Amino acid sequence: xxxxxxxxxxxxxxxxxxxxxxxxxxxxxxxxxxxxxxxxxxxxxxxxxxxxxxxxxxxxxxxxxxxxxxxxxxxxxxxxxxxxxxxxxxxxxxxxxxxxxxxxxxxxxxxxxxxxxxxxxxxxxxxxxxxxxxxxxxxxxxxxxxxxxxxxxxxxxxxxxxxxxxxxxxxxxxxxxxxxxxxxxxxxxxxxxxxxxxxxxxxxxxxxxxxxxxxxxxxxxxxxxxxxxxxxxxxxxxxxxxxxxxxxxxxxxxxxxxxxxxxxxxxxxxxxxxxxxxxxxxxxxxxxxxxxxxxxxxxxxxxxxxxxxxxxxxxxxxxxxxxxxxxxxxxxxxxxxxxxxxxxxxxxxxxxxxxxxxxxxxxxxxxxxxxxxxxxxxxxxxxxxxxxxxxxxxxxxxxxxxxxxxxxxxxxxxxxxxxxxxxxx
Length: 425
Ligand SMILES: Cc1ncc(COP(=O)(O)O)c(C=O)c1O
Prior knowledge:
Layout: H1 23-26, H2 33-45, H3 52-65, E1 69-73, H4 76-86, E2 94-98, H5 107-111, E3 115-119, H6 130-136, E4 141-147, H7 156-166, E5 169-173, E6 181-182, E7 185-186, E8 193-197, E9 210-214, H8 217-227, H9 229-232, H10 256-287, E10 293-294, E11 302-303, E12 311-314, H11 324-333, E13 339-340, H12 354-357, H13 370-375, H14 384-387, E14 393-395, H15 404-419
Parallel strand pairs: 2-3, 2-4, 4-5, 5-8
Antiparallel strand pairs: 1-9, 6-7, 6-11, 8-9, 10-12, 12-14, 13-14
Helix pairs in contact: 2-10, 3-10, 4-8, 10-15
The protein binds pyridoxal-5'-phosphate (PLP).
């Protein structure tokens, strides 16, 4: 069939569907006047280590989440280390965590001497599967880590229910989910402790930075004891003050430059999340109408945000068996910054990494962990959903600052490729 030149696929020499400049529309972090002024104010103050800006950021972060304590850290990894330390975890303890995550969700468990036990994810949410958590609970289990992947809240009701029934603590890794809600309540406010990363790519970026939040005074004090020696002398529990000249060995306070950027990011968080969400919803609703493409359906009680994961599921059978890779290739040639298909890099989970398969961390060899190590399995074959490479997804940008015109061009790119599916075999 001959097609008008304007409608020809870019792959076949036609004009691409996406022609607008995408640099600004997709740029992150966003730098506006407030970001520059905030950093300049710290610079000119000369207070580059200890600054009232850091305390102000903590107060605002705590108020946003409606919690008693927020402690800003050098990064999210430090905040997670502090979370496990705050709970008093150590050798002989097991912590159930997802494996399909950035390493900092689980590695600080080893840093306190405890053992991560990985649970599989639910293929619909890509978050830790409560049913698999239940299967992994042992007499040594002390805590569960819920990581809200890509901004999608975990199923917190069954997780909190399991925790209550088994007397376990819950740590939320909310590094991807600033501002998301589950059943009306913000992620980070369900568990005993939550940690957030503020690294540059995150929804509330400060450059490098992290925050631990909790309502529990003991956990707050232990957080300060671990890595904030300059504040130990002010702790309400006088006995703790004797550690003020040493701390417990770490120095985790946030840089005031980061705190200043974090304050601006927090003030703009809801508006910026809203813009991403509106843009993504606009595109997904339209792609869902096309043959072979399906947008994920969210339960009504989930108000997710998009650190990542805007995607459609591809069904080749609705497009005459056209392989997903070919569809993605054609989209890319149309100028759409998409990824997906079978060529997507898939690392297969933390549990397949050498530090676990070779038991390369000293915590694995602590005598108190011997019983756990005789039972806990790592390596391929232990977490089927986590290990399965996603084959049928097409990932989209998060469109942080895109206008309708660009979104319409993306939709048109998909429409065009779907319309020409027969020419692509
Ligand atoms: C899920 C998750 N947890 C923790 C972290 C660690 O945070 P940071 O990089 O600020 O140390 C990150 C990312 O960086 C992350 O993606």
